[in-house]
Amino acid sequence: MQDVRFWSGEPCFDIAHLAHVELLTPALDESVRFFVDILGMTVSARRGNSVYLRGWDDYAHHTLKLTAGPVAAMEHFAFRTSSPEALERRVAALERSGLGLGWIEGDEGHGPAYRFRTPDGHIVEVLWEVDWYQPTPETRPALKNQASRFPARGCNVRRLDHINLFAVDVRASRLALQDYLGLRLTEIIIFDDGSEKGSWVTSNNKGYEVAITEDATGTPGRFHHVCYAVDTREEVLRAADIMLESGVRIEYGPHKHAIQQTVFLYVYEPGGHRVEIGCPGARLVLAPDWKPVVWSQEERKRGQAWGLPTVATFHTYGTPPV
Amino acid sequence: MQDVRFWSGEPCFDIAHLAHVELLTPALDESVRFFVDILGMTVSARRGNSVYLRGWDDYAHHTLKLTAGPVAAMEHFAFRTSSPEALERRVAALERSGLGLGWIEGDEGHGPAYRFRTPDGHIVEVLWEVDWYQPTPETRPALKNQASRFPARGCNVRRLDHINLFAVDVRASRLALQDYLGLRLTEIIIFDDGSEKGSWVTSNNKGYEVAITEDATGTPGRFHHVCYAVDTREEVLRAADIMLESGVRIEYGPHKHAIQQTVFLYVYEPGGHRVEIGCPGARLVLAPDWKPVVWSQEERKRGQAWGLPTVATFHTYGTPPV
Amino acid sequence: MQDVRFWSGEPCFDIAHLAHVELLTPALDESVRFFVDILGMTVSARRGNSVYLRGWDDYAHHTLKLTAGPVAAMEHFAFRTSSPEALERRVAALERSGLGLGWIEGDEGHGPAYRFRTPDGHIVEVLWEVDWYQPTPETRPALKNQASRFPARGCNVRRLDHINLFAVDVRASRLALQDYLGLRLTEIIIFDDGSEKGSWVTSNNKGYEVAITEDATGTPGRFHHVCYAVDTREEVLRAADIMLESGVRIEYGPHKHAIQQTVFLYVYEPGGHRVEIGCPGARLVLAPDWKPVVWSQEERKRGQAWGLPTVATFHTYGTPPV
Amino acid sequence: MQDVRFWSGEPCFDIAHLAHVELLTPALDESVRFFVDILGMTVSARRGNSVYLRGWDDYAHHTLKLTAGPVAAMEHFAFRTSSPEALERRVAALERSGLGLGWIEGDEGHGPAYRFRTPDGHIVEVLWEVDWYQPTPETRPALKNQASRFPARGCNVRRLDHINLFAVDVRASRLALQDYLGLRLTEIIIFDDGSEKGSWVTSNNKGYEVAITEDATGTPGRFHHVCYAVDTREEVLRAADIMLESGVRIEYGPHKHAIQQTVFLYVYEPGGHRVEIGCPGARLVLAPDWKPVVWSQEERKRGQAWGLPTVATFHTYGTPPV
Fold first, then answer.
1. DSSP secondary structure string, D33-63?
2. Strand B42-47 with A263-268, pairing
3. Which site among B126, B144, B284 would you substitute to test the A interface, given the most A Cβ atoms closer than 10 Å to its Cβ?
4. Positive or negative torsion for Cα D254, D256, D258, D262
5. Do B152 and D234 touch (CB under 8 A)?
6. What secondary structure, in 3-state letters, does B34-58 show?
7. What is the full DSSP assignment across D97-126?
8. What confidence tens digit (pLDDT) does each residue in C278-312 have?
9. How many residue pairs from chains A and B have C-beta atoms closer than 8 A?
């Protein structure tokens, strides 16, 4: 467990935060309706086969891009750096890593981005230039320190919280994010045989921005879920009520994770992606010398915080489905 | 408003977080009882005339030090750096600033600290070495990613959130924190005559860790309040119920601040200090290019978020009282 | 205080609950939009100049009837009896009272109703026959023990909670409701000179269904407010957020009443009526020998539960405005 | 289903509410500590081998009596009538029923009570005379419309909500409560073969005060659980946190029942009884012509509201254990 460290090397603050995720969906219209009507997000833009969305307190143009595709899959996700110089440093590191794929010109809502591939095959972008969301008369907030108006619709999700990757080799992908992007490891599952079953990494004071968990099907590069945050645990319960009323299948929860203590609800959006409505509360990782919390095989047998066993599909269902 | 910038210079991550505050109280025993029985904090240590306390998810040995004194006053507060090297850099900057006071050996729970004085006269420490809280059998948490056991007592405050300084010259003290410590300015009140009435600065993703507001009595170097965070707004209301039952005077709230949107409750502890129980919810400042939100004189006339006028004592009552 | 009794005579269960209220509004369309979009109610029917509405868990066809009128006023409110026989008994008592006005044929959603006038001049109906709300495909709930689907829109008010009458003679109107309808008195304000300033009466386990408070303008028969209930105090705070975003004027709150302990938010709907979003929580008056809680002049000086003074308009603003 | 009626005969209001329950426990001291320290209840009196307890807003001397016994069992539970005359009427009906056992003199906190036996063998008392709880200086509430001070300890349960009986013949016991006490049936489970698997009855506006469910072990007269109410669903989640921290075994939940929609948490107290912390929210059954909600075998297969399957022990574990 020599490599189980909060910081992979020197403290590094080059990555500011998880910026967005692009999901391919075979049911674009239904997926958009799900995120808008049920989750309470708003559409920032439409271009070609893509729709750009955000939660009411996401400051950026979008945090979710939905694109029509033949099958549900995560096309890429992105991190924003802390400065233009930080982007240069990260690109240099990635180029040395052998994982680099090169630059793209940009997209709606952001400028040039450097792409790389995780050892498991997920596409990741790092970028600096981002358009701030400009409220319309309908979305202008009453308080100007808020990105846009509280929608009072559906689950009213506040902001992108984190994503969860499926990986065949959790350790390799986790180390890549630590070594080349400077992310910090906050919690980890290591089984008795030394295998790394899950890792939670972050670039800031959130407990995690990317979770990587083992794909029991052995398929590389798949996606587990995206999570949008609400302020209270009560809102997670309310989300469950709304899913029930809307006929959306609840896979798991509401309950509280032992790891990271997020109160969660997992559902499937119409395109097939797993989506979490989660509440981190006021929990933050502020310590600059946090020791990664290592969960053993024995400890993970206890299920989630309040005793619910982990649902079997959590280890096998991802997108694209296999 | 040339100096109204998120970062004073280059992005700087040398300060990790607000670490602790030391309050002098003329009623030490009653103050300890207030923080333990009513706020739900626990005592980590007692030494001489001082008692060291923390909230159940504060990772450090203590975040509050109460010391017997002739009159209520804030003796000092402290920031923890991101690394030993970051501490060296900050000390070098402070020594150049002319505000430096020099090193102290340390205290219960932390190692050597460098002291300086804000332009208004508040004593501040920066330090790296900190003891992590070691739970006792009574305070050991069920989940090992939590600093200690949820107390199920009183207001159950989770962690130190922020402090509010009173200042005669808000701008000078704010710039000192930005220029020498690298803190970021997230919100600010500037009146029509250009005077800076309040500033909110942070070293991390919290919206603020230090607020500085103008002392209408013109007395330099006073203290406004310390705030401990709870997870939900409901817990702030429950805190109000508990204050009512306990005969603790509620000065202001529960209500929601327009600035930073914290749901707040202000009370007086037995020594005379103003204490806030506050809920930041899931709100974070993640943008590395946040533009400080500037509130005008006209806008501040509207009172707090839901319309409550600011209580008059907010501009005049601080510790030590005058 | 000889007449300050929970039961005016023998225990009487002839009235089951507050059934509905009809409000005249000079801005019908805007009022409907307020109750539908902001409060989250649904329209059951429209007839002539009237629109019938209900909260998502109101079992009846409607609990609110909005009718276009030249000025905001409460046209009438209604109680439902426990049985047809109970209706006959109440009508017999009302006919003896000298307050009776006679039968009306019925209205959308209910059958014949007997009308009477309170001593202060408010029109009241008692009735038995009521149509249960029949959900449409859009409003059909997932759980069949719920009146209709949770709307996930605006404040999501659950059900009619209570109304507040303004009266010149609080005692006379309160006694009429106790003597002829058999309502129970749970709380009361009596000033040092013996004058009754407010009374709270109920027909069931709710702490109150009708509040009667003194109209300081001396105008008889006016209306103070109607209250719709939400499940949690957090939802009252959320309602305040929504009012702020919607530009709806908050008159008072959120805060907690000392009397009845309701957590409240008071706003004005576009027609001019005061509307409360209130949370009674799990509080019930179950004791069959409850002793009315008598609040003195001195006690009322303390303001509401957490210390907020009663807003001045609470004693003078009613509908119709004077 | 001829007998599936809300009212068994004419509307009857003779029973006011569920009054108390006496539980025998083989671990009296530990059971008392559980209800005091973890649930947040207070002790009103101790007499012989019995301890009398209540929640902070229970108006009566006690709602729970714990008595040392060789094995966990429910000794009896009690209803309070609406008046002395109502008690006479109920006793007369019970004497005619053949289920009557006769009068007992009374107990700490209440006067004479008439005892009867349900067809399944549970002992039930009906009584009128009850002592109101008299607060001590330590338990005196700040607001006099509240039974006692909010404890700010453990789960802070507010009041007795309901009990759940196990029965071999659900229908027989349910009809006895309807026919002789005048309780109302609000919800019921009837399987395809016509067998009644569960019934929920009430004497007031609460959705239920007594649930009767089938004991799959075929043992007559056992007890399923007692439930204490909290105000919010968040408090149920907090209770789960507290159980986790206290090492109390969570059997089931937190989740939301489909039937009655109570948000629940089931745990075992040290004596072996199942205890629920439940949140009914603002839900009330106000309709005097409520139609009992009939759940079919097919519908019950869907599990609880948000999809959690019913835990197997729910059909077999009761007290005394078999």
1. HIIIIIS--EEEEEETTEEEEE-TT--BS-S
2. unpaired
3. B284
4. positive
5. no
6. HHHHHCCCEEEEEECCEEEEECCCC
7. HT-EEEEE--BTTB--EEEEE-TT--EEEE
8. 998 889 999 999 999 999 999 999 989 999 999 99
9. 121
At residue B275 the predicted structure's pLDDT band, cuts being 50, 70 and 90, is very high
The answer to whether C41 and C35 have CB atoms below 8 angstroms apart is: yes
Chains touching B (at least 3 CB pairs under 8 A) are A, C, D
Distance CA B161, CA B277 (A): 9
pLDDT tens profile C231-285: 999 999 999 999 999 999 999 999 999 999 999 999 999 999 999 999 988 899 9
Which amino acid, residue C150? F
- pTM comes to 0.97
The span from the CA of A81 to the CA of B287, in Å, is 9
Structure confidence at residue D1 as a pLDDT band (50, 70, 90): low
Shortest Cα–Cα distance, C57 to chain B (Å): 23
Domain count, chain B: 1
Residue A322 lies in a domain: no
**A220 in a structural domain:** yes
The answer to whether the Cβ–Cβ distance between C245 and A154 falls below 8 Å is no
Q: Distance between the two ends of chain D, CA-based, in angstroms?
A: 32
Residue A138 is predicted with a pLDDT of 96
Distance from the C107 Cα atom to the nearest Cα atom in chain B, whole angstroms: 39
Residue D282: per-residue pLDDT: 84
- Chain B: closest CA distance from residue A27 (Å): 31
Best residue of D42, D139, D237, D245 to probe chain B, by most B CBs closer than 10 Å: D245
Q: Encode B287-299: b = buried (16+ Cβ within 10 Å), e = exposed.
A: bbbbebbebeeee
C263–B306 C-beta distance less than 8 A: no
pLDDT, residue C1, reads: 61
Nearest CB partner across the interface for A250, out of D232, D253, D306: D306
Choose the mutation target among B36, B245, B248 for the interface with D, i.e. most D CBs under 10 Å: B245
| Contact residues, chain A, for B206 at CB < 8 Å | 205, 284
Q: Does the residue C82 lie in any domain? A: yes
pLDDT for residue A2: 72
Q: What are A200-203's contacts with CB under 8 Å, separation 24+?
A: A200/A259, A200/A260, A201/A174, A201/A177, A202/A285, A203/A13, A203/A15, A203/A16, A203/A17, A203/A18, A203/A79
pLDDT above 70 for B294: yes
Nearest chain D residue to A240 by CA distance is D306
Continuous H helices in B164-321: 170-181, 233-246, 297-300
The answer to whether the Cβ–Cβ distance between D229 and C282 falls below 8 Å is yes
Nearest to A258 among B80, B143, B259 (CB): B143
Sort out which chain C residues have CB atoms less than 8 A from A153's CB and list them: 152-153
What are the backbone dihedrals phi and psi of residue D147, each rounded to the nearest 5 degrees, phi first?
Answer: -65, -40
Residue B295 lies in a domain: yes
Instruction: Tell me which amino acid residue B171 is.
Output: R
pLDDT of residue D2: 72
Domain containing D220 — which CATH number?
A: 3.10.180.10
> Rounded distance, CA D39 to CA D26, Å?
19
Cross-chain residue pair C245–A150, CB shorter than 8 Å: yes
Residues in chain C: 322
Q: Which residues of C touch A38 (CB under 8 A)?
A: 152
Burial class (CB in 10 A: 0-12, 13-18, 19+), A322: exposed
Q: How far is CA C208 from the centre of its chain?
A: 9
% of chain C beyond a pLDDT of 70: 100
Query: What is the residue range of D73's domain?
Result: 15-132+153-306
C19-53 confidence digits (pLDDT tens): 999 999 999 999 999 999 999 999 999 999 999 99
Per-residue pLDDT of D106-140, as tens digits, reads 999 999 999 999 999 999 999 999 999 999 999 99
